[in-house]
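Help! Submission page says 'invalid entity' but I think these are all valid:
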Amino acid sequence: MLIDSADALLDIAVRVPVQRVELDLLVGTGIELLVRRDDLIDPQLSGNKFYKLFFNLQAAREQGLNRLISFGGAYSNHLHALAAAGNRYGFQALGVVRGERPAQLSPTLSDAEAWGMQLVFLSREEYRNKTDAELIVALREQYGDFYLIPEGGANLAGARGMRLAGTALEQQLKGDYTAVCVACGTGTSLAGLAAGIDLAKPAIGFSVLKGAGDLGEVIASTYRELGASDKSANWRLISGFHAGGYGKKHPQYLSQFWQDFERESGIALDPIYTVKMFWGIVSLARQGYWSRGSRIVAIHSGGLQGRRGFGSL
Ligand SMILES: *Cc1c(COP(=O)(O)O)cnc(C)c1O
C-alpha cells in the first residue's frame, strides 16, 4: 500500500467487511448488531492503529524524517503497529517503553524488536514526564531528529485517519444504520469517527478507563479541530463499562461474556478494548437503551496481539 494519498486509505477502508452478529443475549432486544471488521485489514498492522498511523507516516515522509518515535507500555497495540509500519514502509522506529527492561520481553515487544524497532526503557517516573521538552531534547540528541507520534497515536493526524474510516462506513452502509460504537482509550478514534460519519448519526464511545478525567474535553477539541461543529456534536462517551479499569483482570461476568461472544459470533476480541465495548452495547440493549429496530455498528478496532499474555480464556 502507498502512504502518499488519502485515496489509498479510503480504498482499503471501503472494502472492510461489515458483518451481522447474532448473540443469545440480544434475543428479544429488537436491535441488530453489525461489526465492522477493521481487525482484518492486515495480520500485523490493523484496527484503529492502522488508521491512526497513516497520516502520521505521510507527514513524516513529507517532512523528510525517516525516524519515528512513540511511547507505550509493554503490551501496547500502538507500539506494535508502529513497529510493523516502520518495518513495512522503511522507517526507523524508536519505541519508548514504560518501565525497566525485563529479563524476558513481552510478546508485543519481542515482535517490535524483531521488526527492527529500537526499544528505549524509561522508569515509570521518567515515563510520566515523557512529554517534557527536556526529555524530547535529550532523545533528539541521542537518536537524531525524529517525527514524534504521541502515545496511542493520539494526535490530529491520527483522528484524520479514523475520520476516513467513518467516511468509508457511511459509503458502505449508505446511511442504513442507527449508531456507530467504538472503544475509547485516548478518544482520538471516537472524535475522528464522529466527524467522518453523517453528523446526524451518533458515534458512541465506550471508555475503558476507570476515571474518564478530561477525556471528554480532549475529544471535543479534536472534534473541533477536524472542523466539526460543537453545537450539534454527534459523539457521546459512555463510561460505565470499564470493568475495573485499563488492563485490569476481568471480573467473572466479563470473562464469561468474552467466551460466549467469541463462541457465538466466531469473532475474536481483545481483552482491553473491544470486549468492553461489546459488553457495553449488549448491556445497554438489555436495559432498553437502544430503541427497537436500531441497527448498531460496532467497530472492531483490532488489538488481538494483546491477547497474548493476558491470561488464557
Ligand atoms: C488503542 C485502541 C483503542 C482506543 O483508541 P483511542 O483512539 O485511543 O480511543 C480501541 N481499541 C483498540 C483495539 C485499541 O488498540
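Support: the input was valid. A stray whitespace character was the problem, and the output above is from the cleaned input. The chain is about 40% helix and 15% strand.
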